[in-house]
Amino acid sequence: xxxxxxxxxxxxxxxxxxxxxxxxxxxxxxxxxxxxxxxxxxxxxxxxxxxxxxxxxxxxxxxxxxxxxxxxxxxxxxxxxxxxxxxxxxxxxxxxxxxxxxxxxxxxxxxxxxxxxxxxxxxxxxxxxxxxxxxxxxxxxxxxxxxxxxxxxxxxxxxxxxxxxxxxxxxxxxxxxxxxxxxxxxxxxxxxxxxxxxxxxxxxxxxxxxxxxxxxxxxxxxxxxxxxxxxxxxxxxxxxxxxxxxxxxxxxxxxxxxxxxxxxxxxxxxxxxxxxxxxxxxxxxxxxxxxxxxxxxxxxxxxxxxxxxxxxxxxxxxxxxxxxxxxxxxxxxxxxxxxxxxxxxxxxxxxxxxx
Length: 355
Known about the structure:
Layout lengths: L15 H10 L9 E3 L7 E2 L5 E10 L11 H17 L4 E11 L5 H18 L2 E9 L5 E10 L15 E5 L4 H18 L11 H8 L7 H7 L6 E4 L4 H12 L1 E6 L7 H9 L4 H7 L6 E5 L4 H4 L5 E9 L4 E4 L6 E3 L17
Parallel strand pairs: 4-5, 9-12
Antiparallel strand pairs: 1-2, 3-6, 4-6, 7-10, 7-11, 8-10, 9-11, 12-13
Helix pairs in contact: 2-3, 4-5
């Protein structure tokens, strides 16, 4: 979690709730024109300037969503912000503000929370969003974080999960499966450490997939890329729970089916080789692994020529009539494999969630 034996750590009780909030947020400044009042008053004030507000929130609980045995606190703060901004990006909106609430046990010193907030601040600077409020309280069960993100966009530019039509092309950004394989490396090395604390973790050569797990990025850049290409998605979602789960969400909301082509799923070579190392099917890491935080969307077939050779996008399938269902076309054959939701669920641990 947080170990620095060279300094005396400060108990949270020394500052108290209000002193702690002031201490953790004193170096945050407001940069968004829509942020009228931020931290320090009874409530924040946002001026949306005739735009639609987009709101999203996520709760991250220690032992459920993260393991402090191998997740650095600064990375945790950064990632907690990013996963919310990804939801805003999936609505084709611009993230503008966040609110952060923490519940912490007395095993956490002030310095540990400083690490978390340094990650939060790094994310705020990276994505030009303002911290405008939140709360802190005590916890009897470790660390719980809740972040709410605010975004803004003109009504006509907002993209929802519904809107896909039969024959629309299914498109994904980036590559998939890396975050899940990064998690497998972290879990493996943590288990080795618990068995023998003198063993050094073997992390060399896994940098890309470790970063995909510990420090993902929200694809807020995609909005402008699509605008430059003069493409408006007909539906969109971010990939937090696995590709298969997100396709089924689009299917449900848009009332269409999908054909996904296995050979078209974009995967990094390190993801593939690491999956082989763990005797896993690489495709399953993309379908069910989750936490990639790429964007999955549909576009009109008329936009094919605009996007077909773009390095940021992969066309991986197309929409069909709802009655035709959701299937993956297996590599090198016409065999249809039913798509099922086997991504992450905080309550079940092995199936998809709605967040």
